[in-house]
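Form 7-S
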Amino acid sequence: MAFAWDPFREMDMLHREIDRLFSQTSWRSPLSKVSFLPGLAARAYPLLRLDDRADEIVVEALAPGIDLDALKVSVINQQLRIEGSKPAPKDVEADAYHRNERSAGAFVRILSLPAPVNPDKITADYKNGILTIKMPKAEHAKPRRITVNVA
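Output:
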């Protein structure tokens, strides 16, 4: 019984082998997301939700316990930048932890915005561990209704 050569099966096997090799080493891509959260694959921090509304872009960032004095929010070249730090708990020594998944340290999160915004009207509020950033869209980026004339 003859088997036909399947190039897609061969590529899949090669892909799996390369993934296996990289998972066995400590090498991480410099392009991967970097944060201070522990684990095999670092996650971006803070976790975000972006709403692209008709007149504004709203970003909610889940960031409980951050140092509000160190928090910086800026928009440059249609990119939102959130940076700050999360202090470590002072009441427990590091050696006393059995398991700690709530790490502390500095963070930077940069997010490309889906449309140009008006930087003079951006507001940011922090309540109950959630940072809400409201960015009104620039006038030229807002949708416009165009009337169609019938001739």
